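Dear Dr. H.,

I hope your travels went smoothly. While you were away I took the liberty of generating a structure for the chain from your last submission, since the lab meeting agenda had it listed for discussion. I wanted you to have the full record in hand beforehand rather than looking at slides cold. The sequence, exactly as received, is reproduced here:
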Amino acid sequence: MGLSVLAAPSVGICQQGEPDATDPTPDRGETLDRLIDLVGGALVTPDRSRESILESLRRVRDPRLEPLFAQLAASADPRLRLHGVLGLAELEPERGLDMLLVRRIDDPIEQATLLGQALRDGVLTEAQLGEVARWLEADPTLRAIVLARAMRIGDPSAATELRGLTDSESLAASVYASLALAEVGDPTERLEAVLDRVLALEDEDATGVLRAILAYSREEKLTAGAIVTERVLASTNDDGRLRLEALWTGLMVDPANKAFTEQWPEMFEAADDDASRLRMALALPAIAEVGGPAVDARLF
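The corresponding predicted structure, in token form, is as follows:
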């Protein structure tokens, strides 16, 4: 079921006062009940309008939405989880964000996204602000990701704190901090040094860390991720899927880089599964947009 059908009923949510007995328009309660049913049934279908609809539902702050938000908070989809956790918090502002739900999230990037949005939306209580501050002190990886976001939106103190994390005992924190600083023009030596640490690991361990860095670069659209791509392609790591993912990332964040575009056809042909070829094909619009080389249609 497409979510676009919800556009018209959402108008009824904002209507005030008692409905006229002769007016066939459903009252606010009936409209909201139908809306909840429709959204609940449509969550399995990805849709561009889903984000704006869920944000609108959160703004309604109607207690009857609690079951829907609870369902979203338990979803396997990170974006749905974000709306669910924030929606529940907005229903009870005096209680604030359910920190237990946040701690259950394994991915520090997802945790940072959720906490950053909670801070912007003002759903953290005073006590929770202190708890988050202590949490960030205890978890350098999460702290690095949150500081990176803060720096990109203009926090002048964030860069200084990130520089202090570049030689952290936590390799992940060092990577995220160095990548964020390189993105805003800091010398790339820090990032190169921390990548030396990563590449010195056993191949299997290095692959896991590098894939996380590449994914973060794509999600945050960091052009500094091209440095990671260059290092992976120049390394002795012979994991074919890692090398494909590195080139795909490089093409997504720096499609004008000739070193990447020239390797595209060879890497595409070397891909041993449809999923890898699809990822490589997704880079083509970006290559074309910057006037990259034409790709031989026979490859397809």
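Two observations you may find useful: DSSP finds 19 helices and no strands in the chain. Confidence is low (pLDDT under 50) at residues 1-24, 293-300.

With kind regards,
E. W.
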